[in-house]
Amino acid sequence: MSSVSHRRVGRLAWVVVLAGLGPAAAVSSQSQVPAQEPAEGEGVYNVVDTPTTIQSLKRVGTYVKKGEIVCELESFPLRARLESQEAALKTAEGPYQNARNAREVAELAVTQYVEAVYKPQMQKLEAQISLAESALKGAEHSLALAKRLVEKGLRPKGDVQTAELGVQRAKLTLESAQGKKSTLEKYTKARKVKELQSAVERARAQELARQAAVGNEQAAIEQLKKQIESCKVLAPADGRVHHLKPIEEGAEVRKGQLLFRVVPGAGSGAGEEARSGSRLR
C-alpha cells in the first residue's frame, strides 16, 4: 500500500472515532486548542491606574495607521475626579495667597522698622551727639578763658569753678547721647530686627507649606489629565489590529493588561481587511 493510501486510511479512522464519540468529543477536541495571539506586532497595554471598561474597540483585522485611535476606555470617573480636584485646587489657593501676603507683610515690617523707626532715631541721636560735642568744646573754651582771666586777676576764682561745672555737664550730655546711640545700634535694633525676622521665617514656612499643598493639587490634576488622555489608546504603528477575549467592548480592564497588538501588514483595502479579519479570528 502506498504512503498516500496510508494517510487516507489514518484520516478515515480518525473521523470514525470522532463520529463514534459524538458531537461532545468533537467540541472537546476543538476546545483543547487554545487561541494563540501572534508573537509579532507591538503590544499596547492599559496605563490607566484604576479599573475601567472598554467603550469602543476596532475589529480584529482592521488596518490602522500610526496615531489612529484603536480603543477608547471609559473616562467619566476620571473626569469627575478631575472636577473635584480642580475645586480642591481653588480651595487650596486661598490659604496659599493669604500666607504669601502674611510673609510679604512680615518682610515689610522689617523694612519699616529700619527705615521709619531705627534710622530717624539714629539721626536724632547723632544730632544730639553733634550738639553735645559742640557744647563741650564751648564749655572747655569757656573754662580756658576763665582760667586766663582769673590768673590775670580780671575775674573771680568762682568763674573757674562755674566753667568746670559747665564742662562736666557737657561731657555728661555727650556721654548720655553716645550711650543711647550705642544701645540703639547694638541692642535695641538687633533685638527688634531678630524678632521681626523670626516672624518672617514663620510666615515663610507657612507659605511654603501652603505652596506645597497647591503644588500637590496641581500635580494631581496633571496626572488625571494624562490618565484621561490615556483613555484614547492609539496605534503605535501601521498595521492590523489583533486582540483576544476577554478584550471586547464592555469588558473591564486593569492597569498593565494587554489591550491589543498591531501586527505589521501591507495594504488597507476593505476586501483584504475583511479577509485578514476572518483569518485572525
What do the pLDDT scores average to? Answer: 84
The total strand number stands at 8
Major pleated sheet: 4 strands, antiparallel
Cα Rg: 48 Å
The residue fraction in helices comes out at: 55-70%
Which short descriptors sum up this protein?
OB fold (Dihydrolipoamide Acetyltransferase, E2P); Helix Hairpins; 3 domains; 4-stranded antiparallel sheet; 5 helices; 8 strands; disordered N terminus
Protein model, in words:
By secondary structure, the protein is an alpha+beta fold. 67% of the residues lie in helices and 11% in strands. The chain folds into three domains: 33 residues, no CATH class; 89 residues, OB fold (Dihydrolipoamide Acetyltransferase, E2P), CATH 2.40.50.100; 151 residues, Helix Hairpins. It is rod-shaped, with a radius of gyration of 48 Å.
What's this entry about, in short?
The chain folds into three domains: 1-33, no CATH class; 36-74 and 231-280, OB fold (Dihydrolipoamide Acetyltransferase, E2P), CATH 2.40.50.100; 78-228, Helix Hairpins.
